[in-house]
Amino acid sequence: MSPQPLHESELTWLSTRELAARIAAGEVSAREALDDQLARIDTVNGRLNAIVTRDDDRAREHAERADEHQARGGELGPLHGVPMTHKESTAVAGWRQTRGSALLADNVPAQDALVIARLHAAGVVTSGKSNVPEFTAGSHTFNRLFGTTVNPYDTTRSAAGSSGGAAAAIAAGVQASGDGSDMGGSLRTPGSFNNIVGMRPSNGRIPYALPANPWSWLAQPGFMARTVGDVALLMAAASGPAAGAPSSLPEPGSVFQRPEFAEPRRHEPGAGLRGLRIGFSTDLDGLLPVEPEVRSVVDTVAGVLAAAGAQVDEAIPDLRDADEVFRVVRAVDFAEDYRHLVRDHRDAVRDAVVWNTELGLALTVDEILSAQEARIRLLAATEGFFAHHDLLVLTASQVVPFDAGIEYPERIDGTPMRDYLEWMRAATVVSATGCPAVSVPAGFTADGLPVGVQLVAAPGRDVELLLAAQAFEELTGHHLRRPVL
């Protein structure tokens, strides 16, 4: 039997901005946009296992309400009628939230997470939920409840994680953009693996609000998309201070409503890089092992930036304290979130989650205080660097998309990995700084596997970061290469 032909329409590869504009103009209804997306899921998802929860009737009711609102002349949000699946671990009222674990198979939140509430307020139509690793632990999307999500560019390879289901769906034309979250690279690594953009915002840009822990900081909500402009569009909808969120940054989401994001400089690609002071390193001055295929792509980026008029040097901040900060804070977060499940259902919880939770429970006061002191030194190091630089440009992932049948790469360029966190350090050391960071497509290996580059800016400089990322995107055009399914 020959494979089922893939559904592809004139809507499939539109950006989120383009689709929202067509719906607002009455050229396409919200119901038509949703049906088109569901048809694409029907023919793509069997190859990828990206979308794991659907309720088509509920989604169609949502789309029909959007169309009725528009027909009555109601005010339209910037994302009115746009269908979107959401990361499975994110709370969406009325949709189950399992975190990839059978222990939570019947969990149905009554309230939207803040980021979802803001997307709904902007007009998004929820159409399903995308796969995650069990309890979002690790950057490879597999679990015993839903199975493994694979990469659209090579379906024997990982789509990364933990926002891997969303990334695969975006790359495969299911939707142009979507939400996710990033503790140790869970937006940036899937971005690199799937040839899309993945942004971890500054701490507090999309705040945590009650009833969630409003002081949580290591994991951040954020977005992925096929273009930087669409990430900016979603950031505009979801950012800004909130009640019950004391760690909020004060600026409203409107700071992302820049004309450059809506109308890129097609006549002068890369102009936004001119004059920027950029520190560049493929391996953080030897701190990271990097696969040769990744290095060969990322090494070319320095020349691209310089040719565009940026001032590129090899200066980088001292990030040696970042590992301690990341590992201790992550362990504390796991202990806070999963200690009861590990205590009561240890045999039903993935070994890596048990390990990380028990690390947190075993921490001493001295270890916690040491990590706090390390975080202070890390802040001083990054502030010192950004006093003289606009950007830090690094490898997004130390490896290419790996065999989807393994848990994680056990060696990188001959260096053994001591645990499942070690191979993600290109992302985790940046997470520890609290700086905004974005992965942007940088090229492909000889075998056609995507490789991303990571741009990092000073805390709070999210808009400037996206403007630089868009300039690189315009200049290179790597994001235009689609997978062949």
UniProtKB/TrEMBL annotation:
Biased composition (Basic and acidic residues): 55-72
Domain Amidase: 34-466
Family annotation (SUPFAM superfamilies): Amidase signature (AS) enzymes
Start and end residues of each stretch annotated as Disordered: 55-81
Gene3D superfamilies: Amidase signature (AS) domain
Protein name, as recorded: Amidase
